[in-house]
């Protein structure tokens, strides 16, 4: 009877080898031969599952991101019927934690970033967060602001004698989207600091919480 091969387990084993090699010596140290040696498999097996080094590294990064996203989803589920503000903080704090998935993602991303300057394919893999994530975060920011009874930053510049409700709403949505982008950029930067040992998770968390308080305004209800 032929042996049943667990394809997903084989791919995961190869990806973990890429993570280990890249974190130890940078992505320049990652070759198909070294991945095979690290994973304890044949070169042919690596090439069977991945047609190129770029495909293997891209899948490795995708899986690192997926691991963190899964952790965020579980944290949000555990929060149950939490307020938008709590969900917002939970999502952002997932990138500044000391857990293995977060630190691995940050270290691996840094290792891959050096290649992106000269490799268009790698640069595409490291492109900023997708629109769906920013839209979701922007909705959380808007809802959290409403719960606090505050408006978007800059609303005080609007001439109250000539208020157009549609324009105000559009202005707020645009601001929320920009703030969402800034929040994730800050969280990633702080996460890198934690991964490199430049900050403790607690110190990074305080900076992140301070920024969230600034963009939400009003009085916290969390």
Q: Which percent range describes the beta-strand content?
A: under 5%
What's the domain count? 2
CATH architecture assignment name of the largest domain: Orthogonal Bundle
Q: CATH fold name of the largest domain, please?
A: Tetracycline Repressor, domain 2
Structural class designation: mainly alpha
- H/I helix tally: 10
* Termini separation: 59 Å
The H-and-E topology, N to C, reads as HHHHHHHHHH
Radius of gyration: 21 Å
Shape: elongated
Low-confidence stretches: 156-163, 166-171
User: Describe the biggest sheet?
Assistant: none
User: What is the overall pLDDT average?
Assistant: 81
CATH class of the largest domain: Mainly Alpha
Helical proportion? over 70%
The tally of strands reads 0
Topology record:
Blueprint: H1 7-25, H2 32-39, H3 43-49, H4 53-78, H5 84-93, H6 100-116, H7 120-125, H8 131-148, H9 165-196, H10 201-216
Helix pairs in contact: 1-2, 1-4, 1-6, 2-3, 4-6, 5-8, 6-9, 8-9, 9-10
Provide an overview of this structure:
- By secondary structure, the protein is mostly helical.
- It folds into two domains: 1-51, Homeodomain-like (Arc Repressor Mutant, subunit A), CATH 1.10.10; 68-216, Orthogonal Bundle (Tetracycline Repressor, domain 2).
- Helix content is 72%, strand content 0%.
- The protein has helices at residues 7-25, 32-39, 43-49, 53-78, 84-93, 100-116, 120-125, 131-148, 165-196, 201-216.
- Helix 1 (7-25) packs across helix 4, helix 5 (84-93) packs across helix 8 and helix 8 crosses helix 9 (165-196).
- The radius of gyration is 21 Å and the shape is elongated.
- The chain starts with 6 loop residues before the first helix and ends in a 6-residue tail after the last helix.
- The model is unreliable at 156-163 and 166-171 (pLDDT under 50).
